[in-house]
Amino acid sequence: MQLRNLPLQLGDYGPALMLRWYKSDNVSLVLKVILWPSELDTALSPESDIMSTTDRDKIPASVAQNKTASPPVKVPPQQGKHTGMNSIHEVVFVAVLCLAQFLSLAAMNQTVAPMLILAKYFDIHDYGNLSWFSAAYSMTVGTFILPAGKPTLQAPCQTCPTSRFTTGTPTDRQPHRKTRRHPRAQARLHGRLGLVQSLVPRLRLLWPSHLIWFSTCRAFQGIGPALVIPNAIAIIGRTFPIGLKRNIAFACFGAAGPTGAAVGAILASLVAEKLSWHWCFWFLAMTCAVLVGVSWFVIPQPSESASRSPDASPERDGSKIEPETDPNPTFDHLGALTGVTGLILINFALNQAPLVGWSTPYVPVLLVLGILSLAAFVWVELCFASQPIVPLRGLQRHAAFVLVIVFTGWSSHGIWVYYLYIFLEHLRGHSALLTSFETSPVAVTGIFFAFLTVYLLRRGVSVSLIMLISCFFFFLGSLLVVLTPLHQTYRANTFVAVLLMPGAMNLSFPAATILLSETLPRDKQGMAASLVATVVNYSISCGLGLAGSVHKAALIKAGDKAGVERTRSSPMPKLSESNEVLVGVRLEGLRMAVWVGVGLGALGVVVAGGFWVVMWVQARKARKGRKKREVEEGDGVMELERNKLRKFSAGTTTTTTGTTRSEDEVVEGEKGLHHHEEMKSV
Q1: HEC string for 114-182
Q2: What is the pTM for the complete model shown?
Q3: Can you tell me where the transmembrane regions are (predicted)?
Q4: What integer is the mean pLDDT of 62-76?
């Protein structure tokens, strides 16, 4: 096949390039040039057979050399490097890594969507037991992400001043060495997820009716995503150079979250209704087992990727400079022990209180022990750790703002998800499958907001403003649910809330990662994504615990007011029982719980608004300072020109030749001074 007179608009590379005499096997390279202008060098290279020598000679020099047609785009030196994979391999590679995020959220909804089926199976009387199924999973995901991701934490490329974004930046002080030397260990990262998740249905059969054991297995299940997610982020960052490909890869990774939540809810509900809820976990374990094999072949070998990876320094004199690494990398075992212990104890106390009450002695004791353990963690990180898990000594004061915003927003989101399903299934009487379809629009809007984030960042929109918008979505989504009447149509408040909440999710995570990276030392900026992911997942579990305490107190108060009989061990009837009085009591209790989410969302809006004002004021002061320096520099130049004019004027009394030369210099000096004054006024 021959394609003649095919103009390819090469973006910033200037006028259209007339490429002729294409062969059919070169179509993929043509599409590459269209999508990625950096492939122009490959198309024009002497080794490329994309065109004949005669046609190559006809290309204007300005286009071929990218010098005069248009100003060259300032990109890092590694922008034009290849990943060592063809287009299909790159797509499959990104898809496999995105499945880490996809399966993480799908596993989260395995116990959210079919909650009433689980309640009937376990004969549950209390909403607190149901919330433990999700809280245990989020607790371990949030707790173990940071220490699990420590070997992969990455720092910005020292040779690339434009590498501002943190996640997956090229150079490591402490790279994931085993993963680099044995790339098939990268595939085993997904295998760990499948192995841990397969423990749930296998071990669950040993104690078929024990709530504590099931919640424990859910906690073990959460360790899998904690191991996989930070490593998947790091692998994406190491593989793709800074540019459009990397942005698209991270956008797909972010879009996989709400998509996985929607698909996981639908499949879990379908399987639980038609087969058994046990098969939800069996199918997920089999999916992870298949993913192990796919990852084994898709993730490149070091000989294929290491020499071309963007973490390598630019070539100098034909040799490649290896990135600087720590020859003796160490892991902060004491910090990991104290940090993980503190986070688990605090979270356990918050989620156990709705079941046994705050008056039970071990609940406040565990809470105090958790706080003391976190205090010990801070002491270890500041005073003893040579390679701290969290670089507290280098954190700027703005980091507290970012972490508070993320915690309040995502804890509000966890409350919104859990109680929205209770509202639709238990109070409106919808089936698990119907409820999952009602919440499925989050997949579409999640993809939209993920790529909208990339667009806004490329357009230069303030990151703090994006964070404020996401907090407003968190607040508005919860407010719509709490104000929804029981018998209102789905297309009113519920549908709008479902459309808005993915915007909060996919706008907040990248914005928080960028903001937090700017508060970290330059060689530690790569850990921003892991730190944000820790706060995101941990806050979901904490939010469920806080709302659960309020929910139980409101249920007891409303039940006593309505005359509902209760006992000490069971303050409310079984969840399977229902009548008008119970529905009214449960609706009042649910609204009080969701009001906690509204309050957390409002707090996030206030903090994010204050943070945006602070950043705006600082940016304005910085602009004024730059203008002032420019004016001062301009005044200095003008004074220098005046001194030159005085000197030239003093020399006009010399000889005729000298006088003529000095007068010419005076005229030129006056012209230069006049031109400088015009430019200053402009």
Answers
A1: CHHHHHHHHCCCCHHHHHHHHHHHHHHHHHHHHHHHHHHCCECCCCCCCCCCCCCCCECCCCCHHHHHC
A2: 0.70
A3: 248-270, 276-299, 362-386, 398-419, 439-457, 464-483, 495-516, 528-547, 592-619
A4: 43
